[in-house]
Amino acid sequence: MGTTSSIKKSKYFGLIGETLSYSFSKSYFVEKFKTLNLENHFYENFEFENESDLAHFLLDEVSKLQGFNVTIPYKEIIIPYLDKLDSSAETIQAVNTVLIKNNELIGYNTDIYGFLESIKPKLKRHHNKALILGTGGASKAVKEALTSIGIQVKLVSRNPKSNAIIAYQDLNESLFDSHQIIVNTTPIGTFPEVAICPDIPYQYLTNKHLVFDLVYNPKETLFLNNAKKQGASIQNGLQMLQNQAEKAWKIWTL
């Protein structure tokens, strides 16, 4: 796709989710369109309180878009409404980017790429096992990313549905000693709820730990602040979002 205003046909993109007033995506793409002089490119937020409203939009109104992003809580819910999935979305059964082409909705997952490119520079030789807080769509992307580079992972949940998932109350010093990457994939601590954080035993974190929070607003969550006090290396989710947004843009402009 060209990068001048000579492109006359308006192109529309957007973000689908439940609560989007503090979303990163719209401001990012609006600024990107401005930088590229794409005056007839537009990006809007589409908030839906329930699946019924989402379904109505996808069946009756989505045709005006060229593509859109998907966030909490619809990354998994949206899949039955799509015509195709790329291999990454198929593998983890979670979608965060949709391309509309030839009247078909094609689902992708750019979270995997975004997370992996963000965490790679932080990894040390001893970072070979990870605890992932949460079991939703973002958690699946993080798990796929880490396992793809040989890092063993365990999921942590408030309500474990299998013996393979650890309950928060079962986290202990031994697990923290052996799992020196901790990734929060839950929305806990997101603005404006900045006074809360995942319920983990922070006292077992050390300067060997890498603690990653997918939350990016605020820049340093209470989760990250607690980890930093223990000497751990920390990173928020902003770089991941930038990476996945650029990957989405490439998908939309193929």
Supply database-style keywords:
254 residues, alpha/beta, Rossmann fold, 2 domains, six-stranded mixed β-sheet, six-stranded parallel β-sheet, 8 helices, 30% helix, globular
Q: What is the class of the largest domain in the CATH system? A: Alpha Beta
Task: Name the CATH superfamily classification of the largest domain.
Answer: NAD(P)-binding Rossmann-like Domain
Task: Tell me what the CATH architecture of the largest domain is.
Answer: 3-Layer(aba) Sandwich
Strand order of the largest sheet: 2-1-3-5-6-4
Q: Estimate percent helicity.
A: 25-40%
Count of discrete structural domains: 2
Quaternary structure type = single chain
Q: What is the helix/strand order?
A: EHEHEEHEEHEHEEHEEHEH
Q: Biggest sheet: strands, sense, closure? A: 6 strands, mixed
Point out poorly predicted stretches: 1-7
CATH topology value of the largest domain: Rossmann fold
Q: For the record, give the distance between the C-alpha atoms at the N and C termini, rounded to a whole number.
A: 8 Å
Write down the overall mean pLDDT.
94
The number of distinct β-strands equals 12
- Helices, by number, come to 8
Query: Which structural class should the secondary elements be placed in?
Result: alpha/beta
What would the principal axes of the Cα set say about the shape? globular
The percentage of residues in β strands lies in 15-25%
The radius of gyration over CA amounts to: 19 Å
